[in-house]
Amino acid sequence: MTDLGASIVIIGLGPTGIGAALRLQELGHKDFLVIDRAPQAGGLAGSVVDPQGFTWDYGGHVQFSHYEKFDQAMELALGTDGFFQHQRESWVYMKDRFVPYPFQYNLHRLPKSDQQMALAGLQAIQGQPQNKTNFDTFLRSSFGDGLCDIFLTPYNFKVWAHPAELMSCQWTAERVAPVSLEKVQTNIEEQKDQVSWGPNNTFQFPKFGGTGAIWRSLADKISTNKMLLGSSVQSICAEEKIITLSDGRTVAYDQLVSSMPLNQLAAVLGDKELMEQTSQLLFSATHIFGVGLQGQPPEHLKTKCWMYFPESDCPFYRVTVFSNYSPNNTPRPGETWSLMAEVSESVHKTINPDTLFQEVIQGMKNTKLIQEGDGILSEFHLRLPQGYPVPGLQRDAVLGQVLPTLKDMDIYSRGRFGAWKYEVSNQDHSFMQGVEVVEHLLHGREEITLHRPDDVNKQHNPFPYPDWKA
Ligand SMILES: Cc1cc2nc3c(=O)[nH]c(=O)nc-3n(C[C@H](O)[C@H](O)[C@H](O)COP(=O)(O)OP(=O)(O)OC[C@H]3O[C@@H](n4cnc5c(N)ncnc54)[C@H](O)[C@@H]3O)c2cc1C
């Protein structure tokens, strides 16, 4: 006899687990249980308030949506009144200046020598086929050596914390837009900015409580007796279908949906072969640094959302002006503001934990985000041991073995680190992976997000289900 049990048990109350649980509830399936080791919902899409009253997300979370079902969930969470709408104003900081994103179409803002390098590289690849051997060859054959040397190579190393030669490029379909030499040339000649934001390129952000407010509100719609928070899965006996929790309690299941990282799932299963296979999956850790400040942002940061930093004058790859997303992310709206920086870490890119915060602050000064003498009210730091599922060269072969093995055990590993597919690991994708795995278990439907990422990312709501609003 076990202490607890349900026909479908879900590990994780992040977007994936919440998507699965809400869909089960919608379909009237009452026999399920969600377990999360954290005391509150949200997972990596959660938010925290520091002792000084500043709200922080776990990295800059911007909402994308590829699905009507996800749009409905956002409305259900906070209503249309619960969000601010923003234009996606993103910039690159390099050569002591801000360049609007997409960087390649705004080269006129850079020194002449950089423009020439970029153009020479682009001209050299005209008519040449793309080389998809790895992410590095893909970038060089798609953008040319000039753009790679100036921006793409250093930036991508800062983000992924892995050399691009170790990464595949199969995941890039939507994320890395192809570049037009003609457009690059015209924009340089006409000294014209081409920005990525505008009335048709907007995102929404919760007015209160950070991104985590969305997921806390959706979790509140799941029956309380179906959730076990603050309980960590310590081991799973796949033969007997029994989970043991860290407090010693046992939970029986028929089918298990897991959104904990796949490598950690292999470890709690104690399966040596799965552990060996998943050890080949690459990932990076992410450090989140929040800096809460007195006053208001300087003029040049007043409308910026997030900025990319390819150069070595700062340790971070991205900074979000988090108080621009909502002034309520600070303790005294109108009197205080905030910046949130992200730094990656891996065996290929180590950091010094004793000096990193100082380096971040110095980096913010070097890149004109803050000035000497600015009143810093709060310094927040959090290390996410697994932040980015890096698309390594072996990834698809490993997943092609591991996910079917788990399925044979009635275990469905889904979500950002559950399925380890970066290209479908945002909040909308993760939520839908949860929804779709339930559709698969109950109705035998194909899980399109997991199996057809390129199709899902091509357009909004490409695969509406006929009874979606059931
Ligand atoms: C730095 C960063 C920036 C991001 N930016 C964006 C963005 O701009 N836009 C966007 O849409 N998405 C963004 N994301 C992705 C977003 O956070 C994820 O899509 C989402 O959180 C994944 O949801 P999930 O449920 O699959 O996994 P998670 O959120 O990781 O949830 C997994 C849950 O499992 C629980 N768990 C783990 N192990 C155990 C265990 N042993 N026992 C019990 N419970 C366990 C965890 O506590 C956690 O709650 C970003 C993520 C990061 C890290």
Q: Any overview of this molecule?
A:
The mean pLDDT is 95. The protein has three domains: 208 residues, FAD/NAD(P)-binding domain; 87 residues, no CATH class; 108 residues, Protoporphyrinogen oxidase, mitochondrial, domain 2 (Polyamine Oxidase, Chain A, domain 2, Alpha-Beta Complex). It has 470 residues and is an alpha/beta fold. It starts with a strand and ends in a 12-residue tail after the last helix. Helix 2 crosses helix 6. The chain is 32% helix and 23% strand. Strands 1, 2, 9, 10, 11, 12 and 18 form a seven-stranded mixed β-sheet that branches. A seven-stranded mixed β-sheet has the order 7-6-14-15-16-13-17. The radius of gyration is 23 Å and the shape is globular. Strand 11 and strand 12 form a beta hairpin. The protein has 14 helices and 18 strands. The structure holds flavin-adenine dinucleotide. Flavin-adenine dinucleotide (FAD) binds next to helix 1, strand 2, strand 17 and helix 12.
Question: What's this, in brief?
Answer:
The protein is α/β, with parallel strands linked by helices and 470 residues long. Helix content is 32%, strand content 23%.
Number of discrete domains: 3
The total beta strand count reads 18
The largest sheet, given as strand count, sense and whether it forms a barrel, is: 7 strands, mixed
Based on Cα principal axes, name the global outline: globular
Radius of gyration: 23 Å
The molecules bound to the chains, other than polymers, are: flavin-adenine dinucleotide
How far apart the termini lie comes to 35 Å
